[in-house]
Amino acid sequence: MGTPNREMTTLGVVTTTFDQVGTGSHDSEDLRGRVLDAARRARTAATTFGPLPQSRKDELLLTMADRLVAASPTLLAANAEDVELGTQAGLPAGIIDRLVLTDQRVRDIAEGLRTVAALPDPVGEVLRGRTLPNGLELRQVRVPLGVVGMVYEGRPNVTVDASGLALKSGNVVLLRGSSSAENSNRALVAVLRDVLEELDLPADAVQLLPCHDRATVRHLITARGLVDVVIPRGGAGLISAVVEQATVPTLETGVGNCHVYVDAAADVDQAIPIVLNSKARRPSVCNAAETLLVHQGIADRFLPAVAVALRQAGVTLHADESTRALVPDAVAATDEDWDTEYLSLDLAVRVVGSLDEAVRHVARHGTGHTEAIVTDDVRAARDFVTRVDAAAVVVNASTAFTDGGEYGMGAEIGISTQKLHARGPMGLPELTSTKWVVWGDGHTRPAS
Amino acid sequence: MGTPNREMTTLGVVTTTFDQVGTGSHDSEDLRGRVLDAARRARTAATTFGPLPQSRKDELLLTMADRLVAASPTLLAANAEDVELGTQAGLPAGIIDRLVLTDQRVRDIAEGLRTVAALPDPVGEVLRGRTLPNGLELRQVRVPLGVVGMVYEGRPNVTVDASGLALKSGNVVLLRGSSSAENSNRALVAVLRDVLEELDLPADAVQLLPCHDRATVRHLITARGLVDVVIPRGGAGLISAVVEQATVPTLETGVGNCHVYVDAAADVDQAIPIVLNSKARRPSVCNAAETLLVHQGIADRFLPAVAVALRQAGVTLHADESTRALVPDAVAATDEDWDTEYLSLDLAVRVVGSLDEAVRHVARHGTGHTEAIVTDDVRAARDFVTRVDAAAVVVNASTAFTDGGEYGMGAEIGISTQKLHARGPMGLPELTSTKWVVWGDGHTRPAS
């Protein structure tokens, strides 16, 4: 176990660094105290942010964007330290790639803040309203959630993206990023906090939590009454650990075991590009297809043709027996393949006897993210749309469209695969709650 | 420990009865299996209920209403057994009172189902929709949550109310009522299941879980993937136990430590009836006021007068020193009083120096249910409304209005005090999720 070196950082959060990354929780009570203390300061900051008018929030985000670009040399220097440490520690090239900041990436991050600044303010929107027969005036109004906790891996851009979305929706944010991005995240958060102070706003609206101890996450997700919601972003393991251990409400994001079902009545000329785009456009994102289901009535016409296209794109097929009879070079699928979110150029393939069998396969193995059917039969399309239970159900289009930007939300904090509160891409409105505001003039309720 | 007698009931759920009520969990693995099995059958039933058109659901609820009235003699006989057992076991009169069914109460329960049948179907409602620049047609549609678990105490009417609301919103329901109402609940559920079968619908859409073992609740609230949401209804202890131990998403209902703040600029003639109505109309419900906060600038005019009115209504005051200087017969408040949901004719009273102090008291002690201000000062009213974070914030009216029926929702399954998904009275729409439905014509997403 390494020796902890406590230090009060410029971020105002006492952090503990260890000589070795990932050492245990010997100091857990103290760590808990620091997390709860950060949460309490966030709560206080939230009382300032909740009522903040849109003009002030937009000014804040635009200033942050400018200052991040201006601080690019500092940010890149801090990031270089992370990249150096990660390389020394032997992190895979893919992870290093997501970690790296460049001048262009910093400009992109700043541009993201400007995009969010240009979006309408969700806070104060009146969702419903009426005057009751007794004269009471009733309005349901959007209000911020309050203190939003983010638990995420890898990419430092999440630090700024999440802060921008949270602040614009009147929330404050507690960030728990990856230890591999610690220097980058600190540098980014330092810029954001400087801007808050510059604009006479509480710097504690954006706080970075210690990232070297997993116990930080546990303390954050059990801070009931202090933290209003925790949003985990990352792999399936991180998300399910957070959701199962949390006593604070959570918003699940992003595990996508997505299917494309090619119906007997599919147009093969549409089906091939849809499958190709769903799988290979960006295999590492959650809306990528992981399993192809093909109706037996079209299998011999469709499978050999799509296999050629997929092979050219570098995709490995993991196929059932019926598929392998038509595509002999496919790898034999195991039971595990149907439940695997590859996030790579791999695709499970199965022939089904009917639409009903496809729906049941999706119900059993899907994660409720995005499910697509390709068909020219309107009854099959309606049936699939009605019976499949997922955040997005798609007819004759690629699964890759499930995305806040594509849906016209301007920006997203993640894609929810849960059923409560928000389902599908989550933008600014999904970071709010509501409040009933009731105006009377001495009204009392009669006995019933 | 009693000897378990297994029996297959007419409800299709294997229940275990014990010679002694409330004995332990020696059979816990078996119990878990039975709860999960019930949940699996509910999931299957849910696939039928999700797509059911409104006409079929309304026919179901109206038939259930008729059959319940017709079965009144059987229901009252079963209920008499519960009342007899409860009386022998020495249950308090208040609990016995809530347990008792009469012909009139059965007619009221049936009428509740007819009210729900008359409400619009939330399922299929299009919340948002647009055609994207690329021609993709996008709609966000309300869909059922799926399998709803209800955990509740005492009153047998909840068995039918919750079933009616769940079924109308396309869901199926797993009911876990109080053991003290076991015979009543079984008789009610038997009627509902008979009607389901009569109309060729799956009886497993309404299932009663074993009620004699607390482990049932634990198995229900951890059945992730089988149960979509659990709604606890009852005391604060039940609710927080469910919410903290659940891995299934929960909808918290009903703990209300509600405040009335009488501002310096209050109209005393309005303030007295508002306080009286908020406290004494029905002290046992969650929207009743538990604490009165009075601005020091109006205390000497207001407190002696309101104390007279409250005393006449039988209310005991638990007051701070400043209040007792003006109302000498008030009981001295302890720190606990500020956090107590009395649900009785008791009221905590405190004099505050400012609106700010009132807001901070509410933030510290409130449960986010309903908070009221009485004032003629428009700036004070706006300030209170903006700064107080609760499901309902009320100006110049009684806290007693926070109710689904009063808000025009027709019926409610409870009042949510959480911030995610639903806040305030929950009617049919709050028992739904959403689904994005995307129609294309061979659309693929360009590389970005």
UniProtKB/TrEMBL annotation, chains A, B:
Domain Aldehyde dehydrogenase span(s) in chain numbering: 35-323
Uppermost EC category: oxidoreductase
Catalytic activity: L-glutamate 5-semialdehyde + phosphate + NADP(+) = L-glutamyl 5-phosphate + NADPH + H(+)
Major location (coarse): cytoplasm
Keyword Hydrolase (UniProt): no
Pathway involvement of the protein, from the record: Amino-acid biosynthesis; L-proline biosynthesis; L-glutamate 5-semialdehyde from L-glutamate: step 2/2
Intracellular or extracellular location(s): Cytoplasm
EC number of the protein: 1.2.1.41
Pfam families, alphabetized: Aldedh (PF00171)
Keyword terms: Amino-acid biosynthesis, Cytoplasm, NADP, Oxidoreductase, Proline biosynthesis
CDD domains: ALDH_F18-19_ProA-GPR (cd07079)
InterPro entries: Ald_DH/histidinol_DH (IPR016161), Ald_DH_C (IPR016163), Ald_DH_N (IPR016162), Aldehyde_DH_dom (IPR015590), Glu-5-SA_DH (IPR012134), GPR_dom (IPR000965)
Record family assignment: Belongs to the gamma-glutamyl phosphate reductase family.
Role: Catalyzes the NADPH-dependent reduction of L-glutamate 5-phosphate into L-glutamate 5-semialdehyde and phosphate. The product spontaneously undergoes cyclization to form 1-pyrroline-5-carboxylate.
Xref: PANTHER family: DELTA-1-PYRROLINE-5-CARBOXYLATE SYNTHASE, GLUTAMATE SEMIALDEHYDE DEHYDROGENASE
Protein's UniProt name: Gamma-glutamyl phosphate reductase
Gene: proA
